[in-house]
Amino acid sequence: MRCLRVPPVTGALLGTAAALLLSPGGLARAVASAVAALPRSPGSRRARPAYHRDEAARAWGLRAEAARLQAEEARQRAAFLAEASRVLGGSLDYEATLKSMARVAVPYLADYVVVDVLDADRRLRRLAAVHARPELEPPLAAARAFAVAPGVESPVARVLERGESTLVREVDEAWLATRPRDAEHLGARALRPASLMLVPLRARGHALGVVGFARTGPGRRYALADLALAEDLAQRAALAADNARLYRESQDASRAKDEFLAVLSHELRTPLTPVLGWVRMLRAGTLEPEAAGRALETVERNTRLQLQLVEDLLDVSRIVTGTLRLDLRPVAPGEVLDAALDTVAPAAARKGIAITRDVAADVPVVEADGHRLQQVVANLLSNAVKFTPDGGRVAASITRAGSRVRITVADTGAGLRPDVAPHIFERFRQADSTLTRRHGGLGLGLAIVRHVVELHGGTVEASSEGPGRGTAVTVELPAVAPGGRRDD
Known about the structure:
The structure is a single chain. The chain is α+β, with helices and mostly antiparallel strands. 49% of the residues lie in helices and 17% in strands. The protein has a six-stranded antiparallel β-sheet, with helices on both faces. β5 (195-203) and β6 form a beta hairpin. α2 (26-36) packs antiparallel against α3 (50-88) and α12 (333-351) runs parallel beside α13 (370-386). It starts with 7 loop residues before the first helix and ends in a 10-residue tail after the last strand.
């Protein structure tokens, strides 16, 4: 009886049977591991037993099959990325682009995907959650915002801050126990994934968010090749999403400019109508002396209004071209406030608005262009009077805040919506930019304020508790030290 020895490759194949189910790339890796287990024959071909020759032939066949499978896997990955690029390029909406990335990754790359985007408060907000079983998506989508706290150990926060991906080959009980916040946010506590990948969303050097990929099947583990594929997908998605964001911003800016031009035409024409009317009547000589005096006052007031509109436009032009210059000298902030109060006093008196002045005794001088600083304060006071109803109050105060001087103008007027407050210092932006709005003006004054304050090395910000609850605008400027230098 002839005894046959079982070739080592057979055992290797049996030992990796479960790995044949891995996707993507599992079959190729399984065959490759089987090939690696093959014994290497000596260089001589003389007197080689038959079973060695059979084993060598089988080995070459397995290597060829492994190469074919690896080529097929590479083709599938390329096809996946090509389809992903097509899907990602199909929308010019920022959020829709990122949501489509999650949909395209399931089930080829993950059993479920979560996409978190960074908001203005440095928190990760859940934008999308896609699961191979749709009934499991609602709990994932309802995840609370994830606060990125500096110095706190967190895989999610580390991926966001460092911009480096994390591969968790096996999500075990120890991992879940030592990272409870991350596990809860990623759905790992409830869905018990077998393996995780956390990949940053970054575009043009800016962090946009984090994407989590998870496999839930037993024995299904991510490898470095999967991480490379996930990073490629996330990079394409981040770039497409950022392009969509830039497109939306350009459209918004274009629309704001169109609205501004319409308002500009209206504002320039409005003062001319009464001027032309009164001039015709004065020329005709039909007015009584008292009416003629009133006519001249109206002509002067509207001419000054139009002059101010033109000056604002010229200032914006200087800002855009970088030709706005300052004549810096030591200036007493209290004197600037008094001069600005004189300019708005008549308008406040007509509306019955009470203006209070409070200047602390220890306020130092600032190095500033006195004319431009007065323009800033007068603009803030004028806005406060304009948007405060009859009988309201405006408070102007100057205090010392460490090494800086703080100027605050607060009113009891219309207030600001939370979505409007961050934008009131932008050019061509108004809370109400329609032709039927109650208050006139081009909406350029606060943009000029911000630029002039920043040229002085200062900051300006607005705060409001909401519509109808007033607004406070705060300007901070560097003080001048006793030696004559800025006390920065």
